[in-house]
Design goal:
The model has no long low-confidence stretch (mean pLDDT 87). Helices cover 52% and strands 8% of the residues. Strand 1 and strand 2 form a beta hairpin. It is of the alpha+beta class. The chain has a 5-stranded antiparallel β-sheet. The longest helix has 32 residues. The chain contains 10 helices and 5 strands. It folds into 2 domains: 69 residues, DNA Primase, Chain A, CATH 3.90.580.10; 123 residues, no CATH class. This is Zinc finger CHC2-type domain-containing protein. One of its GO terms (biological process) is DNA replication. GO terms for molecular function: DNA binding; DNA-directed RNA polymerase activity; zinc ion binding.
Length: 214
């Protein structure tokens, strides 16, 4: 049985607005997925407790309770399923199945029902795994490269930590590990292949007055 979406929201500390909630079926919360600070202050997140679904009327994020949990906990829907319903014996999740809804969105995919696809069409399941994972690896290299440029573009330790936190969350890795990787990359010769030329590109962007990190 799926957990009630309102209870999930309250459990994760989301703030509810009783006045804006039209009924017990439709309740309003502050949206944790909105990127802009102003948007985060408003009660744009609508939870339909009857259908166990959510929609933010500001950022547009929407879906069912499994996606809701995955977004709140920055994990994959398959991992949420495994925790709620128990893992299927002898099945290990492919790295692509562990991508969060946010990570899938970054590479242009909606959340994928991997377990359903595995059962209904094994060949399509394998091909989709390869496709998604290949796209993510390319995107992750870009994120690390741009994160490194942002790391170099800021001046204070606090700003560098903020850069590492932001990009580590998007990559699904530890911020301290990413910080160490970037620090070592500045002095390591040769640099990792994905970072080569990043400093020269940053200099060129600065000369054109472009902002790399704001």
């Amino acid at each position: 049985m799926l957990p009630p979406i309102k209870e999930v929201a309250l459990h994760h500390g989301l703030k509810m607005n009783d006045r804006l909630s039209k009924s017990e079926k439709d309740v309003r919360f502050k949206c944790p997925f909105c990127s802009h600070k102003y948007q985060k202050k408003k009660y744009h997140l609508s939870l339909n407790t009857r259908d166990n679904v959510f929609k933010c009327w500001s950022c547009g994020e929407s879906g069912g309770v499994l996606k809701f949990i995955a977004l709140l906990e920055n994990t994959s829907i398959e991992e949420v399923k495994a925790r709620l319903f128990g893992s299927t014996p002898n099945i290990q999740l492919h790295p692509a199945e562990k991508l969060t809804p946010g990570q899938l969105k970054e590479i242009g995919f909606e959340p994928i029902n991997w377990s359903g696809l595995r059962q209904s069409n094994p060949a399509l399941y394998r091909n989709t795994l390869s496709w998604v994972w290949r796209e993510w690896q390319l995107h992750a290299r870009f994120l690390k490269r741009f994160g490194y440029m942002s790391f170099l573009a800021v001046n204070s330790p606090q700003e560098r930590q903020a850069v590492c936190r932001e990009y580590a969350q998007r990559l699904g890795i530890d911020p301290q590990s990413l910080m160490m990787e970037y620090v070592q990359a500045r002095f390591k010769k040769p640099q990792p292949e994905y970072l080569r030329g990043a400093e020269q590109l940053l200099d060129a962007l600065k000369k054109k007055g472009a902002k790399v990190y704001a």
